[in-house]
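Structure in, sequence out. Go:
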């Protein structure tokens, strides 16, 4: 009987092995039913998407709200409410200003481009012929055929588009319903973000209590340290990139106006928006803009390409470091890896959030390696090797969370 009781006793090692087996089984089941699980997750995310968007809005506006609460309304009883009201009033005013100044110009530029595409192609044909004749080039007929095929393709596209529009008329109602649903989700996101900002002082203690009630104290402290560090990285990076991109967009518009580049507002908006993506952003925005300008005015396309190269160098070497500093603590190699991997997995959002996410993971892995080597009394020996200290030692501007 004693042996049987001893055999039934589950020690810590046995429980760990059972958990590993259970996790392996769950992982296998998840892989074999990946589509079902993914569809269920997609449906759940689509249901709560307004609240996710509201959390993102509240996350971005929390820093300016705290600034007004600390600097402007520190002696007022309802300082949180007034701070939230001030931030949303400023955000609404900026949004209305952008809509009134930028959106009409962008729409007019697009309509002008579409309506005059045949004229632009004819001008491009004349430009190529004149350039070829001045350079005494032969076989220009191939270029003529290329321009002719482009014009024919454009006409075919317009005819096919008109047919498709007529065929899609019954689906306009579905599109209208989708637009209405999107409008409702947007309103829900804004309202939920307001409530989140107003109830921040209550939500944070409640979430902490829930965490400590479910998870033991030491892991809970560790989770909170990681969340604080992640909050610092994400807020600094995203807000810095938004400011940096706005400045680059304005500079691009000013330089385009000085250089008399066509569609200055349109190309500046594209460059400013895509500049949010680190490293590749200016070039991603420059490709479609150069293609448009080549059709409209080839010399302007060349001037714009040179302008983008100058702006990218200015942003990467002067403006970006001034605004962002070393907010992520990543080397250029890891920034490139984060952008490529994030963009490959999640598209534009992955390219934007891949860098701060990778920065948090990098800090955690670096700290884990540091602690493991310290336990083996190898930390000092490895740190003395060439280049190892840059990987193992914390960056002065981006301290990882304490264990």
């Amino acid at each position: 009987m004693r042996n049987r009781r001893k055999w039934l006793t589950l020690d810590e090692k046995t429980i760990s092995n059972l958990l590993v087996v259970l996790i392996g089984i769950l992982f296998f089941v998840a892989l074999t039913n990946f589509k079902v699980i993914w569809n269920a997750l997609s449906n759940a995310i689509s249901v709560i998407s307004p609240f996710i968007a509201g959390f993102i809005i509240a996350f971005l506006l929390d820093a300016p709200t705290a600034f007004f609460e600390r600097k402007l309304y520190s002696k007022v009883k309802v300082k949180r409410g007034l701070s939230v009201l001030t931030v949303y009033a400023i955000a609404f005013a900026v949004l209305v200003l952008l809509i009134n100044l930028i959106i009409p110009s962008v729409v007019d530029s697009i309509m002008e481009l579409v309506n005059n595409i045949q004229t632009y192609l004819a001008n491009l044909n004349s430009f190529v012929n004149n350039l070829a004749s001045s350079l005494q080039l032969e076989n220009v007929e191939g270029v003529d055929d290329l321009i002719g095929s482009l014009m024919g393709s454009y006409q075919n596209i317009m005819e096919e588009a008109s047919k498709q529009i007529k065929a899609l008329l019954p689906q306009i109602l579905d599109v209208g319903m989708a637009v209405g649903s999107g409008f409702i989700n947007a309103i829900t996101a804004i309202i939920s973000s307001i409530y989140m900002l107003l109830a921040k002082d209550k939500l944070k203690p409640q979430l902490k209590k829930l965490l400590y009630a479910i998870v033991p104290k030491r892991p809970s402290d560790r989770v909170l340290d990681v969340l604080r560090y992640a909050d610092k990285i994400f807020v600094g990076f995203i807000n810095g990139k938004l400011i940096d991109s706005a400045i680059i967009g304005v500079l691009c518009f000013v330089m385009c106006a000085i250089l008399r580049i066509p569609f200055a507002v349109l190309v500046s908006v594209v460059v400013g928006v895509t500049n949010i993506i680190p490293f590749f952003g200016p070039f991603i925005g420059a490709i479609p803009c150069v293609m448009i300008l080549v059709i409209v005015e080839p010399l302007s396309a060349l001037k714009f390409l040179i302008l983008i190269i100058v702006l990218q160098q200015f942003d990467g070497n002067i403006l970006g470091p001034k605004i962002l500093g070393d907010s992520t603590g990543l080397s250029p190699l890891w920034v490139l890896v984060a952008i490529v991997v994030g963009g490959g997995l999640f598209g534009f959002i992955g390219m934007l959030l891949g860098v701060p996410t990778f920065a948090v993971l990098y800090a955690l892995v670096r700290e884990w390696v540091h602690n493991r080597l310290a336990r083996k009394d190898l930390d000092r020996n490895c740190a003395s090797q060439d280049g190892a200290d840059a990987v193992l030692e914390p960056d002065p501007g981006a301290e990882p969370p304490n264990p």
